[in-house]
C-alpha cells in the first residue's frame, strides 16, 4: 500500500483557532440578535395564524371542515418547504442568507394577508342578520378573493420554510461545540430558545387574539406585520459578529454515491476477502482523506462496503479515484443515521396529528361553550390553547430542575431518560389527550342538546377543556421535544439543518393525514339517518367519535414505535468511541 501523507494542517489550525476566539468573544452577543429576531418573527407569524381558522369562518364564510383543511394544508406546505430551506442553506446560500431572504418572503406574505383585513373588497361582505340576529344570508367568497388570500399564505409558507430549519443550527454555530464551555453554551441557548418561544406564544394566545376578536382583524393582523418588519433590521444588525459556516455541498448526491458504491461492492465480504485492503476510507477533521480502521457492526454492513478500499480505488497521491465506487465512512455514517431514524420519525405522524386538533376542532368546541370570566369579559375561543402553553411553562423548569436530576440518580443516564423513552412517554400523553377530549366533548354535546341557548352555546364552562390541554402540553414536553433532541443528538454536524427540518416534515405529514381523515369521516358518516361526525353544527355532529378514532390510531402507532425503538442503537455513543479508538495509517 502506498504511503499517504497529508499536507500541512498549520494554516487550517490557525484558522480554526481564530474561529474559536471569535465565537468565545461574540457568541452570546450574536445569539442575542438571533433570539431577538426569532422571538419577534414568531410573535408576528403565530400572531397572524393562531386565530386564522376563526378568521376564515367569520370573514370568508367557510364551514369548519373547509377552514380546517385550508389551515392544515398550509401547515403541511410550509413544513414541506422547511426541507427545501434546509437544503438551500446547507448546499448553496448558508444559514444567514437563507434566514434573511426568507424573512423578506414572510413579510411580503404578512402584508398581503393583512390587506385582506384592511380592504373590504378583498373579502366577502358581512352576512346579513334578521331581526332576531340569526344569520340569514351570506355571500360566498370569490375566486379573486381566495386567490389573493392564498398568495399571501404561499409567501408566508416560503418564508417560514426558510426560517424554521435554520434558526437553531445558526444559533448553535455561534459556539464552539468541540469545547466543554461551548457545549454548555449550546445547551443554555436551546433552553433560552424554547423559553422565549413559549413566552411569545402565550402573548399571542392572550393579547393578539384579544385584539383580533374584540377590536378588529385589521389591527390584529397589522401589529404582527409591523413587528415582522422590525425583526429583519434587528437580524441584519448582527451580521458583522455572526460566525458563518460555509455550505458543504449537496447531501443527496453523497447519499446516492454511497448507495451506488455499496451496490457495486455487494459481493465483497467485510472480512477475509483478498480484493479488500482491510481498511475503510475516512475523512479527518481537517477535511483531508486518511485511511482508518473502524469497529464493525452487523447492522447496515452492506452500506459499509461502500467505504471498503479495494485495489485501484485510490490514486498514487492517496485520493479517491472514483467517488461513485469508493466513499468515506463519514458519508456512510450519514446514510446509516438517516435510515435508522426514518422509522422513528414516521411514528411521529399520529402523535402530531392529535396535536393538530388544538388549532381546529378544539377551537370549534370553545366557540360553543361558556367563555365568560366574570360578568364583563369573554375569553376569545382561540385563547383556550393558552392552557397547554402554561402547562409547558410550568413543567419545563420542573422537569429540568427536579424530575431529570431525580431520574439521573435512578437510571444513571446523563439525561435521566433516553430520547426514545421521552418520545414514548409523549405518545402515551397523546393518547390520553384524545381520550379525555372525547369524553369532554360527549358531555358538552349532551349539555348543549338539553340546555343550549339560542345560538347553540352549551351552559358548560370552557375551563372543562383545560384537562385535555394540560395533557397536550405534556405531549409537547416529551413527544415533540424528544424528537428534536433525538435529531440534534444523532445527526452529523453537516446535516443539522436537515435534521431540524424533519420535525416540520413530520408535522406536514400529520396535518395532511388529519385533513384526509377529516374528509373521509365527513364523506362516510352521516348516512342512514345517523349524524355526520363532523357536521357544520358541532352540536349535531359527533366530534367525540372522531377523537376516539384518533386515540385508537394512537394505540396502533405506539405498538409500531415500540417495535422500532427496541432495536435502536444510538449513533452518537458509537461515534464517541470511534473518535478515540481510530487508528491512522500513514
Biggest sheet strand order reads 5-3-4-8
Write down the overall geometry: globular
Distance between the termini: 10 Å
Number of helices: 18
Radius of gyration: 27 Å
Query: What class would the helix/strand composition place it in?
Result: mainly alpha
What is the string of helix and strand elements? HHHHEEHHHHEEHEHHHEHHEHHHHE
Total strand segments: 8
Q: Oligomeric status of the shown chains?
A: single chain
Please characterize this protein's 3D structure.
Helix content is 67%, strand content 5%. With 586 residues, it is mainly alpha-helical. The protein has a four-stranded antiparallel sheet, with no helix packed on it. A two-stranded antiparallel sheet has the order 1-2. The chain has a two-stranded parallel ribbon with strand order 6-7. The longest helix is centred in the N-terminal third of the chain and has 40 residues, at 10-49. The N and C termini lie close together (10 Å). Mean pLDDT is 79; it is low at 1-18, 284-296 and 573-586. Its main location: membrane. Belongs to the major facilitator superfamily. Proton-dependent oligopeptide transporter (POT/PTR) (TC 2.A.17) family. It is found in: Membrane. Pfam families: PTR2.
Blueprint (SSEs and pairs):
Elements: H1 10-49, H2 52-59, H3 64-93, H4 95-118, E1 128-129, E2 135-137, H5 143-173, H6 180-215, H7 217-237, H8 251-264, E3 276-283, E4 289-293, H9 301-304, E5 308-310, H10 329-346, H11 348-356, H12 361-367, E6 369-370, H13 386-411, H14 419-451, E7 458-461, H15 466-490, H16 496-524, H17 543-566, H18 571-581, E8 583-585
Helix pairs in contact: 1-5, 1-6, 1-7, 2-3, 3-4, 3-5, 3-16, 4-5, 4-7, 5-16, 6-7, 6-13, 11-14, 11-15, 11-16, 11-17, 13-15, 14-15, 14-17, 15-16
Protein name: Protein NRT1/ PTR FAMILY 2.13-like
Subcellular location: Membrane
Transmembrane segments: 71-93, 99-119, 192-211, 217-238, 335-357, 377-399, 420-440, 460-481, 502-525, 545-565
Amino acid at each position: 500500500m502506498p504511503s499517504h501523507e497529508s499536507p500541512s494542517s498549520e494554516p487550517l489550525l490557525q484558522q480554526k483557532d481564530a474561529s474559536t476566539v471569535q465565537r468565545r468573544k461574540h457568541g452570546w452577543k450574536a445569539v442575542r440578535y438571533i433570539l431577538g429576531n426569532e422571538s419577534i418573527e414568531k410573535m408576528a407569524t403565530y400572531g397572524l395564524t393562531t386565530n386564522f381558522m376563526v378568521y376564515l369562518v367569520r370573514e370568508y364564510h367557510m364551514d369548519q371542515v373547509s377552514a380546517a383543511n385550508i389551515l392544515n394544508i398550509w401547515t403541511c406546505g410550509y413544513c414541506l418547504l422547511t426541507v427545501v430551506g434546509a437544503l438551500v442553506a446547507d448546499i448553496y446560500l448558508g444559514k444567514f442568507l437563507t434566514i434573511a431572504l426568507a424573512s423578506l418572503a414572510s413579510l411580503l406574505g404578512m402584508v398581503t394577508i393583512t390587506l385582506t383585513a384592511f380592504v373590504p373588497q378583498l373579502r366577502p361582505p358581512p352576512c346579513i342578520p334578521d331581526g332576531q340576529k340569526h344569520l340569514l344570508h351570506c355571500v360566498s367568497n370569490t375566486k379573486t378573493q381566495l386567490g389573493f388570500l392564498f398568495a399571501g399564505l404561499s409567501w408566508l409558507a416560503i418564508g417560514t420554510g426558510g426560517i424554521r430549519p435554520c434558526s437553531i443550527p445558526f444559533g448553535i454555530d455561534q459556539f464552539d461545540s468541540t469545547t466543554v464551555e461551548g457545549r454548555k453554551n449550546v445547551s443554555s441557548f436551546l433552553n433560552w430558545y424554547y423559553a422565549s418561544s413559549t413566552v411569545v406564544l402565550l402573548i399571542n394566545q392572550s393579547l393578539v387574539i384579544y385584539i383580533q376578536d374584540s377590536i378588529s382583524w385589521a389591527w390584529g393582523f397589522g401589529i404582527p406585520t409591523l413587528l415582522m418588519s422590525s425583526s429583519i433590521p434587528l437580524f441584519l444588525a448582527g451580521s458583522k459578529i455572526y460566525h458563518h459556516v460555509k455550505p458543504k455541498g449537496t447531501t443527496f448526491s453523497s447519499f446516492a454515491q454511497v448507495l451506488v458504491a455499496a451496490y457495486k461492492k455487494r459481493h465483497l465480504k467485510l472480512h477475509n476477502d483478498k480484493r479488500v485492503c482491510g481498511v475503510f476510507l475516512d475523512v479527518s477533521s481537517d477535511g483531508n482523506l486518511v485511511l482508518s480502521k473502524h469497529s464493525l457492526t452487523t447492522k447496515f454492513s452492506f452500506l459499509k462496503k461502500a467505504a471498503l478500499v479495494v485495489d485501484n480505488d485510490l490514486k498514487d497521491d492517496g485520493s479517491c479515484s472514483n467517488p461513485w465506487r469508493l466513499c468515506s465512512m463519514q458519508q456512510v455514517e450519514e446514510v446509516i443515521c438517516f435510515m435508522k431514524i426514518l422509522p422513528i420519525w414516521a411514528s411521529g405522524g399520529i402523535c402530531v396529528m392529535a396535536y393538530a386538533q388544538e388549532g381546529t376542532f378544539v377551537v370549534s368546541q370553545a366557540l360553543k361553550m361558556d367563555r365568560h370570566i366574570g360578568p364583563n369579559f369573554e375569553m376569545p375561543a382561540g385563547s383556550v390553547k393558552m392552557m397547554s402553553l402554561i402547562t409547558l411553562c410550568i413543567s419545563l423548569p420542573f422537569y429540568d430542575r427536579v424530575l431529570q436530576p431525580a431520574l439521573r440518580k435512578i437510571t444513571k443516564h446523563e439525561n435521566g431518560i433516553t430520547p426514545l423513552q421521552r418520545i414514548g412517554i409523549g405518545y402515551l400523553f397523546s393518547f390520553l389527550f384524545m381520550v379525555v377530549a372525547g369524553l369532554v366533548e360527549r358531555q358538552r354535546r349532551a349539555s348543549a342538546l338539553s340546555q343550549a341557548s339560542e345560538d347553540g352555546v352549551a351552559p358548560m364552562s370552557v375551563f372543562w377543556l383545560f384537562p385535555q390541554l394540560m395533557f397536550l402540553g405534556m405531549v409537547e414536553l416529551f413527544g415533540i421535544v424528544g424528537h428534536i433532541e433525538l435529531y440534534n443528538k444523532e445527526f452529523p454536524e453537516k446535516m443539522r439543518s436537515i435534521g431540524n427540518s424533519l420535525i416540520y416534515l413530520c408535522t406536514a405529514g400529520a396535518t395532511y393525514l388529519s385533513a384526509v381523515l377529516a374528509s373521509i369521516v365527513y364523506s362516510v358518516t352521516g348516512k342512514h339517518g345517523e349524524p355526520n361526525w363532523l357536521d357544520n353544527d358541532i352540536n349535531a355532529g359527533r366530534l367525540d367519535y372522531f377523537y376516539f378514532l384518533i386515540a385508537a390510531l394512537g394505540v396502533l402507532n405506539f405498538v409500531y414505535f415500540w417495535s422500532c425503538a427496541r432495536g435502536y442503537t444510538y449513533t452518537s455513543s458509537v461515534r464517541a468511541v470511534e473518535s478515540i479508538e481510530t487508528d491512522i495509517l500513514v
